[in-house]
Give the backbone structure.
Amino acid sequence: MKEKTSFLKNEICENSPNKNIIPVTTTIDSNNQLSIGGCNLEELVNKYDSPLYVLDEITLRKSCKAYKQALEKYYPGESLPIYASKANSSIFMSNLIASEGFGLDAVSEGELLTALKGGVPNDKIVFHGNNKSDKEIEFAINNNIKVIVDNEYDLKRLEEISDSQNKYIDIMIRFTPGIECHTHEYIRTGSFDSKFGFGFETLHKVFEAVSKTKHLKLIGLHAHIGSQIFELDPHNDLGEIMVTVILEAKKYGHNIQELNVGGGLGIKYTQEDDPPSIDEWIKTVSSSVANACKKNKLNLPILMCEPGRSIVSTAGVTIYKIGSFKTIPGIRTYLSVDGGMSDNPRPITYQSNYSACLVNNPLNSNPNNKFTVAGKHCESGDVLFKEIELGNCKTGDLICVFGTGAYNNSMSSNYNRIPKPASVLVCNGEAEIIQRRETPNDLLKYDVLPDRFIKQS
Ligand code: LLP
């Protein structure tokens, strides 16, 4: 991937951060150093060490507000944006999105607990998953959290658990809408061949089965067609399909009051990416649902959507320190940083591209300085950038990688027993820790040496 630092000069789109590569508060100060949220990134590393995840509060809140305002503007009925916490789950994130009036989507007991601890009201949390454990289902039920039923097995166990506890549960049904979309190239979780959701053709049986249960109340429908999507048409199609499913459910006596169209709006990682704005995406989804309801003389359901990446990705950056250089004449120069696939598994997993620059003298890019940016893990594929043009740099300099707020921290690992980085929140010149840096000792916490081995040594 080729990337120069010209992206730093792009005009900032204030009301749809997903259209920017950099957080909206990014500046280059008089010393030619990069700052975000009024905080000088080099000073942050001096204080909190590297690698460091940095989240910009203003960018986060602007993204949330864009969803809220667009829903109010375009959807004539009630609506609720729900944050897909798999993108970046923490007590802080739960707290922030709750303060913006969002609900939250969780897929495990860990994400549910984090949401509740962060202050998300239980009636605004939805519980997803294609293979929920009994313990997780019981946790959700005991906390009166709405469950999104994914398959027959899920339905059967929910029925058994609700009957055994003699407790009524509100459920939503997730289905695969079969949006293959001929020309559209994106990750197609909404296609028929997906591990998630009931098959479209089985829905009549599912509706019948639910109507025979004692304690399950079907109040909503859910579908999610994929992630990092730049096209609007698939979401236009989705709204219409979902309304036809409301009509189908009606035949079995179910009154669908909530329609959850999932997430999926893409963000700009590199200069080549051109995602629609949050406003355009919500306009498409809202009008498709509202028009289809009007056509079929249906009351408007509560419209829900589940953005993850487009809320948190652009708000986040990762700062690394440069260590070793290795030049292979005529081939390439490797520049190694102090993190890699453990804090950002997306390049090795999806061949994802990012944009980056030096923290000092960020605009300086020298066409002769082309590097392959490698991580520090014992794996040749641990490469963050295959080819990037940077300014003159040396060991000890800092690199800022943009767009890392989503699916970095949440997908991070301890491969090679590398502790996870700290996360700091920046706003108006203040930096606050929202996740402590792990230490090597933290990693030993769960190791157990059986007694007989201790005696031996
Ligand atoms: N709702 C459901 C049911 C989902 O499965 C997802 C994402 C979302 C909402 C949020 O989608 P978003 O707005 O973030 O596109 N690890 C991959 C992304 C996996 C997305 C999984 N589901 C990555 O790093 O690109």
Notes: The pocket of LLP is lined by residues 84, 86-87, 105, 128, 224, 227-228, 262-265, 306-310, 346, 350, 407 (CB under 6 Å). The chain has a mean pLDDT of 94. Residues 57 and 427 are 6 Å apart (CA to CA). The chain has 13 helices and 21 strands.
